[in-house]
Amino acid sequence: GQQVMQIPQYQHVQEGEDFTTYCNSSTTLSNIQWYKQRPGGHPVFLIQLVKSGEVKKQKRLTFQFGEAKKNSSLHITATQTTDVGTYFCAGNYSGGGADGLTFGKGTHLIIQP
Amino acid sequence: DAGVTQSPTHLIKTRGQQVTLRCSPKSGHDTVSWYQQALGQGPQFIFQYYEEEERQRGNFPDRFSGHQFPNYSSELNVNALLLGDSALYLCASSTSGGNQETQYFGPGTRLLVL
């Protein structure tokens, strides 16, 4: 079946350091979405990437979609304690519509002040 | 403008029982998807409802069923509960515009099966 692999599972950083999480799919994605989930909370939508090679930025966050639309990354510059949480990528394999998403297992970001 | 709401927030059941979880989508949304999130894992897609019909289904047994009402709200039913059904159940709503719309998640229902 379709799978989205996400690494690393855990990432410890000092506050102010950068952080990157990577997602990889075995088959081509229609689009990929990124979510953040705080401890005890629910996934909150961050961004959607649709086009091959797309790069989007949100303040300190940079999202990339690979040229083959099989991989993606999220990079956070100069982490802050508010960045703590689990970051999930979620792939959509269908051609259109908000169909069921295939989530990675997430990267737990732990920040040491 | 209310977001996605779910009830109840927490639930404790015993093995073999049945449970019904409820979801009201975000205003203006007509599509509801359900996900199961086990502890420490990513959400897993159960199924999606649109126009009161199941449109797409993930790899879950028939013990998991659902329903969508004319007002777009939805229910998730799980029969013959197993210990492994303990999880956070998330509802996500979206529109059916066909333009790969964003899914908005509700706060979830935490189900514990003893």
Provide structural commentary.
The complex is a heterodimer of chains A (113) and B (114). With 113 residues, chain A is mostly beta strands. In chain A, 0% of the residues lie in helices and 53% in strands. Chain A has no helices and eleven strands. In chain A, the strands form two sheets. In chain A, strands 2, 4, 5, 9, 10 and 11 form a six-stranded mixed sheet that branches. A five-stranded antiparallel sheet of chain A has the order 1-3-8-7-6, with no helix packed on it. The radius of gyration of chain A is 13 Å and the shape is globular. Chain B has 114 residues and is mainly β. In chain B, strands 2, 4, 5, 6, 9, 10 and 11 form a seven-stranded mixed sheet that branches. A four-stranded antiparallel sheet of chain B has the order 1-3-8-7, with no helix packed on it. Chain A binds chain B through residues 1, 6, 30-31, 33, 35, 41-45, 48, 50, 88, 90, 92, 96-106, and chain B through 31, 33, 35, 41-45, 47-48, 55-56, 58-59, 88, 90, 94-108.
